[in-house]
Design brief:
The protein has 367 residues and is an alpha/beta fold. It contains 17 helices and 11 strands.
């Protein structure tokens, strides 16, 4: 518990708040990439405690939020029309598709199961040889090793009725896309510690050099985030741009070599469509040719028309950091966790959900 309690220490948090106030002299926009960081900032009230010169901008680091509508629709189609047992993490079930969500399909009789691990899906496939079992593989680099492991295991034990519907997205290309956006006004980044635990930090060095922007890898506890913000502001105030690792107790420069090897064995890098953002080159994983028979996109030929976001939803602008959740005219009104117009309101890492649950909704609605 040492690393939990220590990084939630109120005294340490207050010390870093004072340090931030003592060094900041001008306005800075800092984007925390990960939705987990956003939730911690909002839930712990850090957004309100930071000096007004420090503007935290919420990034696209919610893999559920950026899973495109057509993949949600494809997952529903598989479960309803292909006799598939569809397995997924629970936070995917209420993400809106073009007409309904996976929870609606489950209520209508589709065999959709909520799991905690893709290895459970392999076991389900082994126990149901007459059925096709598909795991909806959503996530950043963090969850890719477990999904890769499930494919490797299925191959090793001869479970050919198992496949993955892949919607993996990669963080560094998304950060580059944000910096290339004409509306971007980001001065520094807090990079996601859990992603770097797997992949290491070397992928961020080219971004630092190309855009002359500080990137600080942080954890998710209040002191982690405040220390990371302090480190970023020190660099900005001094005109510096370096890659720093605040989360060194967990993140090593080379990441987790065994996990990386497993990911590289099963997945190839591909272009990926991000919901609300569009296509980003080389920003996703897809199952490699060697494991093609475990690729649900290859096993099932499902052609669906592209669908558009709800016209009132500004999720794309929220995910790019252009607008804050409460700036949406439908926030807390037509769009709420029970009836979400967009994925960021329903996901456990979505910025809209964080503001709804933790950031004084009534006050936000009057702004």
């Amino acid at each position: 518990m040492k690393y939990v309690n220590e990084y939630r220490d109120e005294g340490l948090a207050q010390d870093y708040l004072e340090k931030i106030k003592s060094v900041v002299t001008q306005p800075w926009n800092i984007m925390e990439v990960c939705g987990g960081q956003t939730h911690s900032l909002v839930k712990n009230g850090l957004i309100d405690l930071l000096p007004e010169q420090v503007n935290m901008i919420h990034g696209p680091g919610c893999p559920v939020c950026v899973t495109p509508i057509h993949l949600i629709d494809k997952a529903i189609n598989l479960a309803e029309n292909e006799g598939v047992i569809l397995c997924s993490y629970g936070d995917m079930l209420r993400v809106p598709g073009s007409k309904r969500n996976l929870l609606d399909a489950k209520a209508n009789g589709a065999d959709i199961r909520i799991l905690y691990s893709p290895l459970e899906a392999v076991s389900i496939a082994q126990s149901n040889p007459e059925k096709e079992v598909v795991f909806f593989a959503v996530g950043f680099e963090t969850t890719a090793p477990a999904n890769a492991m499930s494919v490797i295991q299925a191959k090793e034990i001869g479970v050919d009725n198992y496949s993955v519907l892949t919607s993996h997205v990669l963080v560094p290309p998304a950060m580059e896309a944000i910096m290339n956006d004409d509306k971007s006004n980001i001065h520094g980044f807090l990079a996601a510690g859990h992603v770097c635990t797997i992949m290491g930090i070397s992928e961020y060095e080219p971004l630092v050099k190309k855009y002359k922007i500080p990137i600080v890898v942080t954890g998710f506890e209040p002191v982690d985030l405040l220390q990371g913000i302090f480190m970023t502001i020190v660099q900005l105030e001094r005109g510096m741009y370096e890659l720093q690792n605040q989360y060194s107790r967990v993140v090593k420069k080379g990441g987790n070599p065994k996990a990386i090897t497993m990911v590289e064995k099963v997945f190839d890098i591909t272009n990926r469509v991000w919901r609300g953002i569009g296509s980003i080159p080389d920003s996703g994983f897809e199952v490699s040719a060697e494991y093609e028979r475990f690729n649900a996109n290859k096993k099932f030929d499902i052609q669906l028309d592209e669908a558009e976001e709800h016209k009132s939803c500004i999720a794309g602008q929220v995910l790019k950091g252009i607008k804050k959740p409460h700036e949406c005219p439908e926030f807390g009104k037509k769009c709420n966790p029970e009836f979400p117009l967009g994925a960021p309101m329903v996901s456990s890492e979505g910025a809209c959900a964080a503001y709804y649950h933790f950031n004084h909704v009534e006050e936000s609605l009057t702004q």
